[in-house]
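Researcher: We plan to redesign the surface later, but first we want a full-length starting point. Tokens attached.
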């Protein structure tokens, strides 16, 4: 397992070359999206023929990555093409952080007003207007420092997001310096008061987004305990207790879900055995989104596809409807439909986790 000293050496290496230099950009730079106190770059992608009132997904890269590397290698742009949603990919500047990390541990950048969080919020508002997107279906996902920053946005702008996914990330508000950030990365975070760090920011709409947490069991950079702390933070926010429903699924994934009183899956925890500091992808037929990179690993679990399915912006056809022998499992674009009963939601979540057949 990577030691804290090794982690410091890795992440302090500002001159580390990026493997995404050869990634052909499919993202367009948006120069004038509004106020930009965090001095971030807005990149975006809208599929050809995108329907009005489509969903929007914000994707946040990790340290030493570009927006393009994370958006392409994790599969978000292919998913956007398949299911017709728009993507906004904020990009960090070296002038802000030499390792290109979002500053999830800088107090000035993790408040609703001022800094990087406000810049990302303005990107969301711009995209909703520009492409006539559905404000009730805005989601955010991020990896590593981007995962931590996704948590910042869910905590400080809960009215903007229906849900979020934190991949190899950290809880909101547990660090206010580089030293505290590295301490949090070891996973040694006190559980008491974690929820209050979020709820004291206030929720204007009186509701909180759903949260899906993904973490590798062999992550030596952001230890699994950090992911457990994220889960505990959002369980406290949503007021859900107990062990939740759980199962072991394909690809060595251990899945847990907690439901609200009205049957919504409000907190999910996905742990993948053997996965290091990386985004889990799959090359299984019908699930191949994204591809090889420094920070993706083929475990057989298509994490970003699973996240999109859980948000209801994608659907998998049933095996019966998916057709003939030897054909690949089929996916289809999501179409909005009346909300199912709570029991149906629970059964569907348990079935997807392998608890029901």
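Model: Full-length starting sequence:
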């Amino acid at each position: 397992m990577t030691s804290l000293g090794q982690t410091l050496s890795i992440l302090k290496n500002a001159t580390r070359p990026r493997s995404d230099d050869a990634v052909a950009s499919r993202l367009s730079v948006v120069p004038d999206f509004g106020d930009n106190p965090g001095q971030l770059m807005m990149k975006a992608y809208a599929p050809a023929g995108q329907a009005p009132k489509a969903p929007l997904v914000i994707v946040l890269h990790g340290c030493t990555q570009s927006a393009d590397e994370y958006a392409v290698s994790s599969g978000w742009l292919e998913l956007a093409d398949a299911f017709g949603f728009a993507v906004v990919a904020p990009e960090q500047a070296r002038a802000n952080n030499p390792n290109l990390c979002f500053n999830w541990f800088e107090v000035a950048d993790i408040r609703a007003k001022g800094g990087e969080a406000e810049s990302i919020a303005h990107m969301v508002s711009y995209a909703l207007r520009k492409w006539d997107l559905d404000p009730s279906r805005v989601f955010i996902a991020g990896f590593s420092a981007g995962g931590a920053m996704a948590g910042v946005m869910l905590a400080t702008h809960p009215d903007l997001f229906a849900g979020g996914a934190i991949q190899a990330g950290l809880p909101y508000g547990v660090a206010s310096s580089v030293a505290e950030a590295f301490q949090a990365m070891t996973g040694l975070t006190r559980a008491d008061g974690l929820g209050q760090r979020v709820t004291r920011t206030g929720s204007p709409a009186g509701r909180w987004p759903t949260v899906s947490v993904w973490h590798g069991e062999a992550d030596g950079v952001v230890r699994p305990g950090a992911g457990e702390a994220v889960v505990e933070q959002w369980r406290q926010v949503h007021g859900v207790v107990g062990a939740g429903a759980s199962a072991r699924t394909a690809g060595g994934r251990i899945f847990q879900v907690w439901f609200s009183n009205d049957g919504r899956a409000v907190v999910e925890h996905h742990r993948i055995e053997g996965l290091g500091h990386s985004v889990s992808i799959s090359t299984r037929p019908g699930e191949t989104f994204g591809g090889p990179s420094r920070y993706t690993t083929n475990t057989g679990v298509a994490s970003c596809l699973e996240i999109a399915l859980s948000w209801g912006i994608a659907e998998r056809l049933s095996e019966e409807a998916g057709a003939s022998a030897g054909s690949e499992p089929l996916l289809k674009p999501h179409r909005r439909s009346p909300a199912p009963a709570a029991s149906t939601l629970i059964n569907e979540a348990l079935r997807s986790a392998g608890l029901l057949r």
